[in-house]
Amino acid sequence: MDCREEKELFARAWDLLDDYAAPELSDDFTHSLMRRIYSEEIEKQRAASYGLPRFILRPIVPVLTSFLVVVLTFTIFWKRPAPPGSLSKTTYVESTGIITDDEDIIKDLDIIENLDLLENVKLLTELDIIEELNGST
C-alpha cells in the first residue's frame, strides 16, 4: 500500500469520527464511575484477604507460622518413651566376652568395676601354675 491510499483511509476514518454523535452524559456520571471503581477495588482487596479485613490477618500470620514450626519440630524430634518392660538391654562386655542384661550389670556393679583387677589375678594364678610346671620339669 502506498502513501496516498493510506492517507485516504485516514481521511475517511476522520470523516466517520466527525459524523459520530457522542451520547450525552448525565450530571453524576463521574461520581457514579468513581464509586463503581472504588467498589471494585474493595472487592479485589476482600478477595485477596479471604473475606476478612487485612488488619485482622496480619498479626495472626506470625503466630500461626511459629505454631507450625513448633509442631513440626516436636513431631520430628520427639521420641516415644519405651514401655516399662523394655528398659533392660543386653550388653556385650569385650574384655570377658560375656553378654549381660542391664539389670545384671546393676546387680553386679561392684564386681564389674573391679573386672580388670580380677582379670589380673586370674593371669597371676595362671603365671604361678606355669612357673610351677616349668620348675617341676
Notable features of this structure?
6% strand, 6 helices, two-stranded antiparallel ribbon, 2 strands, rod-shaped, single chain, 69% helix, 137 residues, 2 domains, mainly alpha
Structural description of this entry:
The chain folds into two domains: 31-77, no CATH class; 88-136, no CATH class. 69% of the residues lie in helices and 6% in strands. The chain is built from six helices and two strands. It has helices at residues 3-19, 29-48, 54-77, 102-107, 109-113, 115-136; strands spanning 90-93, 98-101. Strand 1 and strand 2 (98-101) form a beta hairpin. It is rod-shaped, with a radius of gyration of 48 Å.
* Helix count, DSSP H or I runs of 4 or more residues: 6
Structural class: mainly alpha
Q: How many strands, what sense, and barrel or not for the largest sheet?
A: 2 strands, antiparallel
Structural domain count: 2
Q: What characteristic shape results from the CA principal axes?
A: rod-shaped
Mean pLDDT score, rounded?
A: 78
Q: Bin the helical content.
A: 55-70%
**Amino-to-carboxy terminus distance:** 131 Å
Q: Report the sheet-strand fraction.
A: 5-15%
Strand segment count = 2
Task: State the strand order across the main sheet.
Answer: 1-2
Overall radius of gyration: 48 Å
Order of helices and strands: HHHEEHHH
Low-confidence stretches: none
Oligomer: single chain
SSE arrangement:
Layout: H1 3-19, H2 29-48, H3 54-77, E1 90-93, E2 98-101, H4 102-107, H5 109-113, H6 115-136
Antiparallel strand pairs: 1-2
Short description:
The protein has 137 residues and is mainly α. It is 69% helix and 6% strand. A two-stranded antiparallel ribbon has the order 1-2.
